[in-house]
Design a protein that fits this description.
The protein is α+β, with helices and mostly antiparallel strands. Helix content is about 40%, strand content about 15%. The chain is built from seven helices and twelve strands.
Amino acid sequence: MLEACSYDITGEISQLVRLVSMNSKESVNANILNDDLVYKILLFPTEEGVNYIKDGPPIPKKVMFEKFVDDLFFGGDTAEEARSSKEFVTHFFKGHGLITDPLKDLTTCHGGREELHDDGHLLGYTLALDKDQLVCMFSGYMPAEQCDKRRACAILSSLYDPMGLLLEVDMAGRLIWRDICATCKEWSSILTVELIDRLKLWVRQVEEVVANTRTQRFVELAEKGIIVSTDASNDAWGVDIRCT
């Protein structure tokens, strides 16, 4: 199939789903579709493209997915509906040369797994599916008795918290880094004993907070306050939720 932009592809998908939406079944086997109808749906139709679709997965009569830049989000009333939508849409995108990176192909349905998994990530956080909670990730380590500026930088940048769930801890690390840069001008410079002790204390605090702090993925807004931050143009650039 000829490559196209994602807007073209979603248009083709919409027409194909509309074609089977009147069927009484939840999905329709692609191999029973009329070749001429499939041919008319494709933006740049070819016999190869028609065969690719007909050799693909069943076409659900209801597809629920959102496209944001280069990310695709699939949903449904059940996990099975989300799975069938994902299989159909990703097959369609693959036919246009747009392939999902397996490392970013994530399943985040609530329930079904009791422990943390390496493949359970969302928005840069570990996703604990037992209670549908986000957990910050820290890949740093306790510094040795002698630690240079380069290793300190690696440790301090190992707390990945893009949404600022642990903002206070992150800011404490930034203050340590500021003081390191004030005294250590070279990457190979060895930190003072006082700076190393502060770094060790920060690592212990981060490990404790990461181990014990979880944030609900979905927040019930009916009883929570929302703070919207704007600039001079009155365009909103940030939303904070008061959970306590």
